[in-house]
Design goal:
Layout (H helix, E strand, L loop, with lengths): L4 E5 L24 H5 L5 E3 L2 H6 L4 H14 L1 E5 L4 H26 L14 E5 L2 E5 L21 H8 L4 E10 L30 E7 L10 E3 L18 E5 L4 E5 L4 E3 L8 E9 L47
Parallel strand pairs: 1-9, 2-3
Antiparallel strand pairs: 3-10, 4-5, 5-6, 6-12, 7-10, 7-12, 8-11
């Protein structure tokens, strides 16, 4: 692998926090995005303060972000969200993880989440120490219901520019990387629509994308997400990690948007605290992802998605970092 460029996207001022799941004060950060530029990736958008204040992106900002996304498969919008909202999301993610932990112990006798293989509609153990939780109402024990991630999200104009005006909200969730979690294999969250290796395959526009919202400052110590920009492109061959990558350090309020097909992986959490990142997934109206969460419920009596087929790749014999869990997340 080519060594990743460390890209720090955080303002210079520190913001206080109150718990391991809330944004903590920053110590040393880099405000410059020059490492990305040096690597040839124009993927950082500094959102003007007036647009941050109103929560409405200008047509110029939307156009810049859309262009960067289409070329590189990933774009970062610095300081888009207010701290109080991110703190609220962080508290909900922590409460949700605690509720799932208690239910795993009560219903399944699982006392050490890191050591146990499990996959439910509400939460999946993707790889050692990396937990993927749904936060949607009707599924999560402690759901995210704020309209900001639904109909009023400031990034929605970019989503609609990329996926069309009828783009749908598919998932809201959080990935928690616990201390000691290992680096993931590079992966796409979903494949190309018409194959990877056929030289006559059609390169389609994006059909699904993720929005990442860091809930604590993301550093090299607690494990950023490494991206291989441009790997969403289909050029008659399977995407590889032979090219340059970036591993962004993200400050609170900065978001990342990336194509479902771009190669990425979560890096190890070498800190002493959990690293939660919320994600919101959008898709074109005809696309559905039925592979990432199985229909089996952790909380009996919940609103099961009975109309969806059973997810593929979830096996009782699953081992962390096996092929059965490599598809997701971050």
């Amino acid at each position: 692998l080519v060594a990743a460029t460390m890209l720090a996207l955080a303002p210079s001022s520190a913001r206080p926090g109150s718990s391991a799941y809330r944004p903590r004060a920053r110590t040393s950060v880099l405000a410059s995005a020059s490492p990305a530029a040096a690597a040839g990736f124009d993927v950082v958008i500094d959102v003007p303060s007036a647009e941050v204040a109103t929560g409405a992106l200008s047509p110029e900002t939307v156009a810049r972000a859309t262009e960067a996304f289409r070329e590189h498969g990933v774009v970062f919008l610095r300081d888009l969200l207010p701290l109080p909202l991110v703190e609220e999301f962080a508290a909900l993610a922590g409460d949700n993880l605690n509720a799932c932990r208690q239910q795993l112990k009560k219903q399944h006798g699982i006392t050490e989440m890191d050591a146990a293989p499990f996959a439910f509609t509400e939460i999946c153990h993707r790889s050692k120490g990396r937990f993927d939780m749904q936060l949607r109402p009707g599924i999560a024990p402690v759901p995210v219901t704020d309209a900001l991630v639904q109909e009023n999200a400031p990034w929605l104009p970019i989503v609609r520019a990329l996926l069309g005006s009828s783009a749908k909200h598919m998932f809201t969730g959080a990935v928690v990387s616990a201390p000691g979690s290992e680096a993931q294999n590079a992966h796409m969250d979903g494949g190309h629509l018409f194959g990877l290796t056929d030289p006559d395959s059609l390169m389609c526009p994006a059909h699904c994308l993720n929005v990442f919202v860091p809930l604590v400052p993301v550093s090299m110590e607690n494990g950023p997400t490494e991206f291989w920009p441009g790997t969403q492109q289909l050029n008659g061959a399977r995407p590889t990690t032979d090219g340059p990558s970036i591993a962004p350090e993200l400050g609170i309020g900065t978001i990342a948007m990336f194509d479902y097909r771009v190669l990425h992986r979560g890096l190890p959490n070498q800190s002493s605290s959990n690293r939660p990142v919320m994600y919101v997934t959008y898709a074109r109206p005809w696309f559905s992802d039925v592979e990432n969460f199985p229909p089996t419920r952790l909380f009996p009596g919940g609103a099961a998605r009975t109309a969806e087929p059973k997810a593929k790749g979830f096996k009782a014999s699953f081992k962390p970092n096996s092929a059965s869990v490599k598809r997701k997340k971050k």
